[in-house]
């Protein structure tokens, strides 16, 4: 029987564990809080992250990483991007030597500007083909209510990619596609969070659909430019992990990143918004590392720049809007 260990009993880790359990994969969640682990094992619920959801009885949880990892074929990582390096360093001694390491995370590491699959390769000391990424329009608030969703599984090892695709294909609920472009799939997921912050700020300011369309379209241009500089396949950004996730995150009130931006746009301070945000909004930290990555590769990302200024340097949203609209006019062509 195929076995999986899922690290993180937050909203996506738990929900992805439900999907794996549904396809017959024997799945153990690792959680750092004993009370969450107990709620999953005894009452089959995770009220802090998935209130009202009934978890399958076969989905087990533990606080012991060695127990979760024992015999695992898939090691699925769903912790905040900025804590992954420290977490994985602690779990490394127990990692099965032939397991596929799977990232569900959508962030870029601060300081190193590394994608999560790069951090995994470095910390676990495994080659790229042992690491897969799952990313797409996957708002947990919908999936956990049983609504259908599609995603993208990316890995440079075709057989491993297809094994993971089969392990999380659960019709009619969850439909994974494959794409060998790990860089593009990962960038699409991380950078759309930054664009969702911008769209949220605009919504909080009371701006309308033209502005939302402008930010999403020019945001996709920023994602594509950065992707091209990093060697991604440009077609990836027209797919689920690119435009698909951008649409879902920028338009849904369920998005934590969009909501975070909306609260800033309404005039709340950063400290107030952080205090009101109970779950991980990856773009808040990753906007800095995305901008640093762009500068390293000489890629222009004006929306990302103003997101960093509004989120971290207290630039008034109105000033950010004027800055963006006053840029030198230019042609709109692919890659510009
Ligand atoms: N929720 C979604 O809709 C969704 C969908 C797709 C991808 N993702 C991505 O999945 C990743 C996880 O997000 P989530 O929504 O599950 O977040 P979450 O906030 O719901 O859960 C985060 C989990 O990480 C744990 N955690 C927090 N700090 C930790 C630390 N220092 N060490 C170890 N564990 C720690 C928390 O206890 C919790 O179990 C993010 O990168 C996110 O962008 C989320
Ligand atoms: O709630 P968000 O903003 O973290 O978005 C969740 C997922 O990434 C959407 O695909």
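Q: What amino acid sequence fits the structure above?
A:
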């Amino acid at each position: 029987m195929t076995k999986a260990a899922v690290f993180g009993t937050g909203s996506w880790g738990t929900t992805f564990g439900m999907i794996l359990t549904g396809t017959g994969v024997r799945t153990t969640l690792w959680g750092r809080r004993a009370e969450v682990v107990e709620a999953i094992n005894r009452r089959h619920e995770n009220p802090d992250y998935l209130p009202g959801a009934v978890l399958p009885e076969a989905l087990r949880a533990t606080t012991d990483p060695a127990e979760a990892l024992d015999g695992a074929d898939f090691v699925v990582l769903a912790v905040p991007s900025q804590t992954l390096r420290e977490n994985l360093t602690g779990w490394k001694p127990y990692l099965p030597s032939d397991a596929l390491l799977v990232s569900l995370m959508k962030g870029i590491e601060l300081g190193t500007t590394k994608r999560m699959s790069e951090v995994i390769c470095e910390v676990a000391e495994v080659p790229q083909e042992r690491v897969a990424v799952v990313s797409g329009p996957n708002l947990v608030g919908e999936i956990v209510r049983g609504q259908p969703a599609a995603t993208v599984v990316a890995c440079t090892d075709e057989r491993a990619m297809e094994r993971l695709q089969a392990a999380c294909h659960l019709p009619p609920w969850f439909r994974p596609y494959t794409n060998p472009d790990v860089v593009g799939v990962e960038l699409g997921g991380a950078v759309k969070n930054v664009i969702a912050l911008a769209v949220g700020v605009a919504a909080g300011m009371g701006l309308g659909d033209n502005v939302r369309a402008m930010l999403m379209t020019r945001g996709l241009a920023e994602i594509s430019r950065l992707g091209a500089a990093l060697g991604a396949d440009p077609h990836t950004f027209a797919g689920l992990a690119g435009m698909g996730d951008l649409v879902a995150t920028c338009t849904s009130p369920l998005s934590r990143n969009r909501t975070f931006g909306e609260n800033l746009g309404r005039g709340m301070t950063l400290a107030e918004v952080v205090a009101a945000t109970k779950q991980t909004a990856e773009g808040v930290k990753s906007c800095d590392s995305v901008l640093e990555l762009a500068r390293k590769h000489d890629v222009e990302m004006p929306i990302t720049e103003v997101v960093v200024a509004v989120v971290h340097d207290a630039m008034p949203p109105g000033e950010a809007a004027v800055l963006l609209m006053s840029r030198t006019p230019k042609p709109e062509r692919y890659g510009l």
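Q: And what stands out in the fold?
A: The first strand starts at residue 3 and ends at 7.
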